[in-house]
Write a structure and sequence with these properties.
2 domains, Alkaline Phosphatase, subunit A, disordered N terminus
Length: about 475
């Protein structure tokens, strides 16, 4: 059956305000959300409360390296994309023919003609392997390095995105860019999260279809000056009310709130924030190049945001463009796997190739690393089962159709930018695509490579867990040499 890949963006409401220590903390958490339905002030306050600043000459926001991770939830078939096996038997290789890329000796399937034309601008890692066959555990292995192969309802370790957000706030001076450091555009939220770091380090999430005429990002870049003045008045009222409580504020929490509220007001009113999210500022040719659909416009927005100074950007290619069950989980009960791959291929191929080309054309290829991956691959051997429902890429219920199941023993991902050497593939799988057999790379290697680009030494970096114990951010794995700029 299909899995519920529909992440919620619900923010818990703070508890009732009381005039005591707990009440003051509750009040501060409400922050600007109390009058603008925005939780950012509390988030900013929690970030600064937990971060210990490093006074040693931090880099400016504009100089920091960044990562765009494009996530394929459910797992993409490596055999039907980047690691075709044309000489395998028909019960393995699938129906797609192979095509040459612009890199001698590298072939993809016919589903990726646009990426094949720019294969010299990225590197394919064909020998990924991790140990968990379920979506929760597989995602946690790839995103947080959790070696546990059991599926859990929530992550035990923080994902690399929140770790980066936390560490950069800890080791840098005050952020001068009005944009959040970590943004998710329809981000992967189902099986990852901040764990013991706390929700303060979660992404500023943008949900919905950026291609929709009615799409908007709430609570940023207000242009209505009357609304801005109204918020200023409410902020002033809040500060006056604070004076009643200052005498009891021994920890100075209320005094510190002013700074964070000012930052939140900047997000609301600074023109740069609205401009960064505003896709109408792109010309029609560029928007068409990415594809006038949700995925194309998500990746275009991702490029705009990292160019404007966002440091960690995640986006999930899910929803209706995937097919009936809205993810890449192509079991036969969910999708006709080959119809599903055809159904999503054009939007996927166009959006990813446009993003990669744009990163290089705009001179972002040294600073910005692009990683496209899912939690695992799909079974090399094709199986058949009855469909559980009719829809895009799925036959009527009861119809026997082909599928591929979960496969963590071998899968592919692609890497671009980051100053890395491109136009090659790393590693190999066996003749049927069942096992990685050359230059095998683990989830720990994957994470250590991303951290390296972000200037974080995964082998030496510890963070305190819930019990105050120093915990490594990745306790296994090393940066992949071929993917280091």
């Amino acid at each position: 059956m299909s899995d519920p890949f529909h992440a919620s963006n619900v923010v818990p409401c703070p508890g009732p305000f009381q005039f005591n220590s707990a009440g003051r903390r509750s009040f501060i958490r409400m922050g600007l959300a109390g009058f603008a339905s925005l939780s950012l002030p509390g988030l900013l306050r929690l970030q600064a409360e937990n971060a210990q600043k490093n006074p040693e000459s931090p880099k400016s926001d504009g100089e920091k390296t960044a990562v765009i991770m494009v996530w394929k939830p459910g797992g993409c078939s490596h055999i039907d994309t980047y690691d075709p096996k044309p000489n395998a038997s028909s019960d393995y290789r699938g129906p797609f023919s192979t095509i040459a890329t612009n890199v001698p000796g590298m072939e993809f399937t016919e589903l990726l003609p646009m990426q094949a034309k720019i294969a010299d601008k990225f590197t394919v890692l064909r020998s990924m392997r991790q140990g968990a066959g379920g979506h929760p555990a597989g995602s946690m292995q790839m995103l947080s390095g959790d070696p546990d192969t059991r599926d859990k309802p929530k992550p035990r370790y923080p994902d690399w995105m929140t770790v980066t957000n936390y560490l950069r706030a800890k080791n840098s001076g005050p952020r001068t860019n009005p944009l959040p450091a970590y943004v998710g555009i329809n981000p992967p939220l189902e099986y990852n999260g901040p764990a013991y770091l706390g929700d303060a380090w979660s992404p500023f999430s943008v949900m919905g279809d950026p291609n929709s005429p009615s799409f908007s990002v709430p609570n940023i870049g207000l242009s209505n000056q009357g609304e801005v003045r109204r918020l200023d008045r409410r902020s002033s009222l809040r500060k006056n009310l604070d004076n009643l409580e200052r005498a009891f504020d021994r920890r100075g929490e209320l005094g510190a709130l002013d700074q964070f509220e000012e930052q939140a007001m900047t997000l609301l009113t600074n023109p740069k924030t609205k401009e960064a999210f505003d896709l109408t500022r792109e010309d029609d040719r560029t928007r068409d190049r990415y594809g006038r659909n949700a995925w194309g416009q998500q990746l275009l927005m991702a490029r705009r945001l990292v160019e404007a100074g966002v440091e960690v950007l995640t986006t999930s290619l899910s929803g209706p463009l995937c097919g009936r069950v809205q993810n890449w989980d192509d079991h036969a009960v969910n999708h006709h796997v080959f119809d599903a791959m055809r159904f999503r291929a054009q939007a996927y191929d166009q959006a990813v190739s446009a993003l990669i080309e744009d990163i290089y054309e705009r001179g972002l290829d040294k600073r910005v690393l692009v990683v496209v991956t899912g939690e695992f691959g799909r079974t090399p051997k094709i199986n058949y089962a009855a469909s559980t429902g009719e829809g895009n890429a799925s036959a009527p219920a009861g119809t026997q159709q082909p599928g591929r199941d979960h496969w963590p023993r071998a899968f592919s991902n692609i890497w671009a930018g980051g100053g890395i050497q491109t136009g090659r593939f790393i590693g190999a799988t066996d003749k049927r695509g069942e096992d990685s057999i050359e230059r095998i790379c683990s989830a720990g290697d994957f994470l250590a490579t991303i951290y390296h680009h972000l200037g974080i030494d995964a082998a030496k970096t510890l963070i305190q867990d819930f019990n105050g114990r120093p915990t490594p951010i990745v306790d296994h794995g090393k940066p992949i040499p071929e993917l280091i700029g």
